[in-house]
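Example (one chain per record):
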Amino acid sequence: MLDLELRHIPRPVEFRATGTGLGVLTGYAAVFNRYSQNLGGFVEQVDPGAFTKSLSDGVPVFARFNHEDNFLLGTTEAETLRLFVDGTGLAYEIDLPDTSAGRDVKVLAERRDLQHSSFAFRTLTDDWGFTPEGFPLRTLLGVQLVDVAPVTNPAYRDTSTGLRSLATHLHIGIEQVKEAADKDELRSLLTNKDSGAHGDGERRDLGQVDNHLTIANLRRRIEILAP
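Predicted structure:
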């Protein structure tokens, strides 16, 4: 089983009253091609094609407040959670349930206390390169979406899965990568020609059919290869 990862974005959650039920909650769980905060020696971005396979395959996705099982808000299977991909990112729409969790979220959203959303996922395909400033960059190309959620605590949880991905990409041990991250030396690993970071190593692909390489990714690869 692939490790579960969580990421968040600082975008307000919106509440919309409807003629029936408690109302509808809307927001963006992910924004494309935007760098995350420093995740421990690298930053991350989401490719526009990252959710394509997961959504087209109809993989069940949950909406849980703060990713907690006891705070279920909706599911794609019941169509109480609807997901959309547009030019900005992955948007969600939830028919709030008449439960304690649904009522609490409604009140918080109406007061605009909910200023962050998050998504939980398992990585199928990713790639490594650099930002224009030369900082190590992980690009999520294909993920299995598990959960979307409004969150009150926008903390990045354990990001060691990203470091394990880099170890696989470089064909080296995870302890070596963790040691480099602790010393802020991940760039040195990626720029080492013997590490396989210049395109001669195998990409980590665990089932995603489409590579979804963006023009930005291709440009970064050309810059890295240039003498």
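Caption: The beta strands are 5-9, 14-16, 24-31, 43-46, 62-64, 72-75, 81-85, 89-95, 116-130, 136-151.
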